[in-house]
Amino acid sequence: MAQILAPSIQCQMGAISNNSLMAKPMTTKMWGSLLMNNPRLRTKSSAKFRVFAIKSENATVSRLDDLLNLDVTPYTDKIIAEYIWIGGTGIDLRSKSRTISKPVKHPSELPKWNYDGSSTGQAPGEDSEVILYPQAIFKDPFRGGNNILVICDSYTPSGEPIPTNKRHRAAQIFSNKKVIDEVPWYGIEQEYTLLQTNVKWPLGWPVGGYPGPQGPYYCSAGADKSFGRDISDAHYKACLYAGINISGTNGEVMPGQWEYQVGPSVGIEAGDDVWCSRYILERITEQAGVVLSLDPKPIEGDWNGAGCHTNYSTKSMREEGGFEVIKKAILNLSLRHKDHISAYGEGNERRLTGKHETADINTFSWGVANRGCSIRVGRETEKQGKGYLEDRRPASNMDPYVVTSLLAETTLLWEPTLEAEALAAQKLALQV
């Protein structure tokens, strides 16, 4: 039962019928229209008001939105900081809120905090305290104002990074002078699937059934082809508001599946941007009553999986003669193929089958404009002789801290033996 205010002298049975009340919920806007359009009610501006209750099958008129959208800025300098961290599975996101005495501009101005690691699978019950270190700040699109989202990583009380803290190792790699000097850029294509609640079946699909074959859904429009556009658009705007360097979005090949792109982002910022964008997407799907899935193969059979293609370039790749630098990087990547595959997401073997625009998980390959390869080089990069490469192997549930830092490590810091390099060069030459 919801409550609103109505003039007590006019809330008689003759003013509005029971049938009209029960037919649909009465919103505050509808009440305003009723008052303004009734001459008798307009003349009673001095009438006392009392609470008038309305019932309907859907429960109705709520003032929660007024409080959720309340701007407290004129009344206090305090802000709300939402501390966000990665949970025990390595893919689940957790968060909790705290009040900060004034607006902040840098994570160093924020206090460390702790949480119960035994409840997230990250610490034993007898020693459950895990410490959050604030690392990156974004504007909060849900609370607005000066409120913020805070990306954190997790440590033991003694200051050691816990096993699920992949950011710590990534930050070490990105702080290496050789990596800094090469200014690594990343453009990450995050694919995801929207599922109906309870049945956990893709949005727009008949429950227990299948839509028409793939073909008409990619970048499509129309009620019979595009499912979840409002969620995609809401996420797009929320990321722009937050300060995330989101560069685009589109409907994907499988119906109910979408993609957005983050970047170009430099170094560790790429991981921070992607994790924050995922958190925002989780919150939006929560509000929409839809389940977010980052499973790399949410539907078995003749359906595309979900990846997180990672576009990568260094300063040397972007300059004249960069194509030769790209080919050397590809050679290094071929020699560490198994290392990368093992770090590129759980369940990726169900996606990397050699079908549906993927390469086989056990075979490294590269090609120009070939989406069936492990590494794709664009036509424009080949033409210009400089540019970037696209690593198409990462799964949709990959950890962006791991993938971005591993690409930098393999192509900038790791040196193969001359023998291995020569053998790999021969194999790759046969593919071109």
Q: Which CATH C-level class of the largest domain is it?
A: Alpha Beta
Annotated CATH architecture of the largest domain: 2-Layer Sandwich
Give a count of the beta strands, DSSP E runs of length 2 or more: 15
Strand content: 15-25%
The low-confidence parts are 1-26, 39-61
Oligomer: single chain
Give the count of helical stretches. 14
- SSE class: alpha+beta
Largest sheet: 8 strands, mixed
Q: Specify the helix fraction band.
A: 25-40%
Give helix and strand order, one letter per element, not per position. Answer: EHHHEHEEEEEHHEHEEHEEHHHEEHEHH
CATH topology name of the largest domain: Creatine Kinase, Chain A, domain 2
- State the separation between the terminal residues, measured CA to CA: 69 Å
InterPro entries: Gln_synt_N, Gln_synt_N_sf, Gln_synth/guanido_kin_cat_dom, Gln_synth_cat_dom, Gln_synth_gly_rich_site, Gln_synth_N_conserv_site, Glutamine_Synthetase
Catalytic activity: L-glutamate + NH4(+) + ATP = L-glutamine + ADP + phosphate + H(+)
Protein name: Glutamine synthetase
GO molecular function: ATP binding; glutamine synthetase activity
